[in-house]
Design a protein that fits this description.
It is found in: Endomembrane system. The chain has helices at residues 3-24, 32-45, 59-78, 81-98, 105-127. It is mostly helical. It is globular.
Length: 133
């Protein structure tokens, strides 16, 4: 298997696991902590906008390559095996039938809230102290 094929397979699994968590947070046998983490991961992973836009060189893709796997992995670990297997099957069926991942409007809200918090922090801690000088 070439490096490109390996990366494509990894990206496909990552996308599938994002959809898997979408099903897992709705599953009645998923523990509360896992559901909470699933909601955060799904809101971001399935959001139509990114925390760091992809048009920003290098940084735009780092959130997809580093941040998402760092969020998906612990969420997957917290979901019970039988629930995970069932949700992975549902995710595979969804992606085959729909040909795309679902969208999360909560993800847009999450990203906008993070942007607003960063803008407030920059204003409050970096700009405001120097206004009186």
């Amino acid at each position: 298997m070439t490096l490109l094929e390996t990366l494509r397979a990894w990206a496909h699994r990552l996308k599938r696991d994002g959809v898997t968590l979408w099903f897992a947070y709705r599953h009645p046998n998923t523990p509360l902590l896992a559901k909470a983490l699933c909601v955060i991961v799904v809101a971001y992973a399935l959001s139509p906008i990114d925390l760091i836009p992809d048009f920003i060189p290098v940084l735009g893709y780092l959130d997809d390559v580093i941040l998402l796997p760092m969020l998906i992995w612990p969420a997957i670990q917290l979901v019970p095996e039988q629930v995970l297997a069932e949700c992975r099957l549902k995710a595979a069926e969804w992606m085959e039938r729909e040909g795309r991942k679902p969208r999360s409007q909560w993800g847009v809200v999450f990203v906008v809230v993070v942007w607003a918090a960063v803008a407030w922090a920059v204003w409050h801690y970096a700009i405001e102290p120097f206004r009186g000088l």
